From TrEMBL:
<dbReference type="InterPro" id="IPR023395">
    <property type="entry name" value="MCP_dom_sf"/>
</dbReference>
<keyword id="KW-0472">Membrane</keyword>
<keyword id="KW-0813">Transport</keyword>
<comment type="similarity">
    <text>Belongs to the mitochondrial carrier (TC 2.A.29) family.</text>
</comment>
<keyword id="KW-0812">Transmembrane</keyword>
<dbReference type="InterPro" id="IPR018108">
    <property type="entry name" value="MCP_transmembrane"/>
</dbReference>
<feature type="repeat" description="Solcar">
    <location>
        <begin position="79"/>
        <end position="163"/>
    </location>
</feature>
<dbReference type="InterPro" id="IPR044677">
    <property type="entry name" value="SLC25A3/Pic2/Mir1-like"/>
</dbReference>
<feature type="repeat" description="Solcar">
    <location>
        <begin position="176"/>
        <end position="260"/>
    </location>
</feature>
<protein>
    <recommendedName>
        <fullName>Mitochondrial phosphate transporter</fullName>
    </recommendedName>
</protein>
<keyword id="KW-1133">Transmembrane helix</keyword>
<feature type="repeat" description="Solcar">
    <location>
        <begin position="277"/>
        <end position="356"/>
    </location>
</feature>
<keyword id="KW-0999">Mitochondrion inner membrane</keyword>
<keyword id="KW-0496">Mitochondrion</keyword>
<dbReference type="Pfam" id="PF00153">
    <property type="entry name" value="Mito_carr"/>
</dbReference>
<keyword id="KW-0677">Repeat</keyword>
Length: 376
């Protein structure tokens, strides 16, 4: 019979992540000196294409299921994708909700720069007019929308990265891996934005039009009554224009930056580094990637805010009112701070969850094709 502590640990994880629901001591998995964790320390699986090569028989990465050493979560199995999807929910939903005050000021600076002239004055105006509670207006659609987006973004990225690398094969994956990262992240984001768009539309309207609604519960039906159901997707094209370049930069630059850190900045091979160090690398790589993301996607972000705030507005109206320079620069410093922190935290949370369930962190130097992983 499982102990009470075993049962409490199991309750932290969704049961669908494992092939068996029996409980086990997670600390045994997370103990780097424990033989049960030896496989993850000795196996680096950053080349999905290499894992499917018939010449590499021991490439498949597995972790033990609770109290049953023979039961495993296999890399690129349904349980693996379920874990990545759940990690994406945690990483995107929680981080976007946390930075709601910054997002609120940023959106209002984009819509009404005459009133919200700077970051500090923007916070001052909000505090004076709406009080402290006003800083978190729109947090519910933010949490729901970005949780849905994160689930699709990370889950489908892992799927498409594996799918495209299998099509390319180990040799072409090693040669064109950046293109595969770009294609995989773009494909995932197309799906993720369909999930996000309705909630983003309501969020922007709630945040930029005081008195429109208190939040999600009354804002959603009000928006549909005003714009119609189709109005929830009025901003889908600008959203794709913002999020697809953002996500392509986010994933491809992260993978490249992390690989460079392990190759040039850390003398110890990744699979010999502590998990805390690996998570630190994930956060640092994510933060730098986030700065690039903010710059690339900012013009489209201004368009999304403008279109969702003004009824019947078009892209032409936005360009005419904001101007080309304003389209690229209005609210950019704040967005760099926000997106850099956000992206670093997202990669940190996502990889922390992967480590928590026994999976390897994302990114790093891929093993040469045809090499056998060291045995535990």
């Amino acid at each position: 019979m499982a102990s009470l502590s075993d049962s409490s640990r199991q309750s932290l994880l969704p049961s669908f992540l494992y092939t068996s629901p029996n409980s086990f001591a997670l600390d045994r998995l997370l103990n780097a000196n424990n033989p049960a964790f030896g496989v993850s320390r000795s196996t680096t699986l950053e080349s999905p294409a290499a894992s499917s090569s018939p010449s590499i028989k021991s490439r498949t990465f597995m972790i033990p299921a609770p109290n049953e050493p023979g039961k495993r979560i296999e890399m690129y199995s349904p349980q693996f994708y379920a874990a990545c999807t759940f990690g994406g929910i945690l990483s995107c939903g929680l981080t976007h909700m946390t930075v709601t005050p910054l997002d609120l000021v940023k959106c209002n600076m984009q819509i009404d720069p005459g009133k919200y002239k700077s970051i500090s004055s923007g916070f001052g105006v909000l505090l004076k007019e709406q009080g402290f509670r006003g800083f978190f207006r729109g947090w519910v659609p933010t949490l729901i929308g970005y949780s849905a987006q994160g689930a699709c973004k990370f889950g489908f990225y892992e799927f498409f990265k594996k799918y495209y690398s299998d099509l390319a094969g180990p040799e072409y994956f090693a040669k064109y891996k950046t293109l595969i990262y770009l294609a995989g992240s773009a494909s995932a984001e197309v799906i993720a934005d369909v999930a996000l768009c309705p909630f983003e539309a309501v969020k922007v309207r709630v945040q930029t039009q005081p008195g429109f609604a208190r939040g999600m519960s009354d804002g959603f039906p009000k928006f549909i009554k005003s714009e119609g159901a189709a109005g929830l997707y009025k901003g889908i094209v600008p959203l794709w224009g913002r999020q697809i370049p953002y996500t392509m930069m986010k994933f491809a630059s992260f993978e490249t930056i992390v690989e460079m850190i392990y190759k040039y900045g850390i003398p110890t091979p990744k699979d010999q580094c502590s998990k805390s160090l690996q998570l630190g690398v994930s956060f640092a790589g994510g933060y730098v990637a986030g700065v690039f993301c903010a710059i690339v996607s900012h013009p489209a972000d201004n368009l999304v805010s403008f279109l969702n705030n003004a009824k019947g507005a078009t892209v032409g109206d936005a360009v005419k009112k904001l101007g080309l320079w304003g389209l690229f620069t209005r609210g950019l410093p704040l967005r760099i701070v926000m997106i850099g922190t956000l992206t670093g935290a997202q990669w940190g949370i996502y990889d922390a969850f992967k480590v928590f369930v026994g999976l390897p962190t994302t990114g790093g130097v891929a093993p040469a094709a045809g090499t056998q992983p060291a045995k535990a």
